[in-house]
Amino acid sequence: MHSSGLRFLMCILVSGVLACGAPEAAERTETQVEQAFIIRLSPEMDDLISTSATLDTLAGGFTWSEGPLWLESEKALLFTDVPNNVIHKWSETNGLSTYLEKSGYVGDRRDKHEGGANGLILDQNGNLILCQHGERQVARMKAALDTPQASYESLANKYKGTPLNSPNDLVQHNNGSIYFTDPPYGLDPWDSVRLDFSGVYRINSDQSLTLLIDSLTKPNGLAFSPDQSKLYVAVSDPEKAAYFSYDLDASGNITGGGLLLDVTGMVKTGLAGLPDGLKVDPDGNIFATGPGGVLVISADGKHLGTINTGQATANCAFNSDYSVLYMTAHKYLMRIKLK
């Protein structure tokens, strides 16, 4: 419950089921803890999230939080604030701190609207790999994790001689290749040289670039199934809001697949958020940010329920044993404990 008093209930229609709960919170405190509002569309949600689970707000005051990445070695979470061009670090022990400035744009222009880093991963050698909106590239930080510096090695910045749009999210295959999406969200009006499509790409082991998909309007979040036989892609187009599932062969090439779940209708009802970042648990359940918060989707595309954050939610990340889900939700960093 909010400390300000009673929370009124509202009812919304989600996937044909009427669900009631608390309305969106206009503002939250940085350390707010409250009973989580979970829309439970299937009994399977009870196996994933306790009915007594709480939604913890760990930090706030950001412009658009994104790119959460759990660092097991430090028991800490990294996450980005894209418009402010910074990466933050949060831990239970030390709270919130600035991890890296000039995370996605190293120049001096003051009018870049979304110049910072977005998606983050650690590669197989423990190096930080960043999707950099401002530099329009996927890059590797040239410093150790414990001594971060705004110095980068570009891994991909052009496709057939044309600069990439603004790499957004990424995942690494077991064979070492890196998959990433390239929608136009980080472009500025003066970026006149741009690709006329939004692609899903693979950076191969020899650092060549392969275009895998060019038919999605605004590809955004990426994730693999646990056995890496599927590549999931979130599309953040409000007119075609959906999650896609693509079949991969042993080499990581796309062999088929298509629509997994269309949520355009949910967007049209006015629920905050679009399909964005997503992660997959060891049982193959997809935790996907989207309209209403974080949608939980089975591997066969069944919408099991939604964690309502009360905010447009950009991305999420598990800790190392999948007992906690961290969520970057607009101005806030949140978490919920899982079973």
Structural class, please? Answer: mainly beta
CATH architecture: 6 Propeller
Strand content: over 45%
Global outline: globular
Counted beta strands: 30
Q: Tell me, rounded to a whole number, the average pLDDT.
A: 91
Largest sheet: 5 strands, antiparallel
CATH topology label: Neuraminidase
Description:
With 339 residues, the protein is mainly beta. It has one domain (23-337): 6 Propeller (Neuraminidase). Helices cover 3% and strands 46% of the residues. It has two helices and 30 strands. The protein has helices at residues 44-48, 264-268, and strands at residues 10-14, 17-21, 33-35, 37-40, 54-59, 65-71, 76-81, 86-91, 95-101, 117-122, 128-132, 137-141, 152-156, 158-159, 162-163, 170-172, 178-182, 199-203, 209-213, 219-224, 230-235, 242-248, 254-262, 278-280, 286-290, 293-297, 303-308, 313-318, 324-329, 332-337. The strands form eight sheets. Strands 3-5-30-29-28 form a five-stranded antiparallel β-sheet, with no helix packed on it. Strands 4-27-26-25-24 form a five-stranded antiparallel β-sheet. A four-stranded antiparallel β-sheet has the order 6-7-8-9, with no helix packed on it. A hairpin with a 4-residue loop joins strand 6 (65-71) and strand 7. It is globular. The protein starts with 9 loop residues before the first strand and ends with a strand. The relative contact order is 0.15. Mean pLDDT is 91; it is low at 1-26.
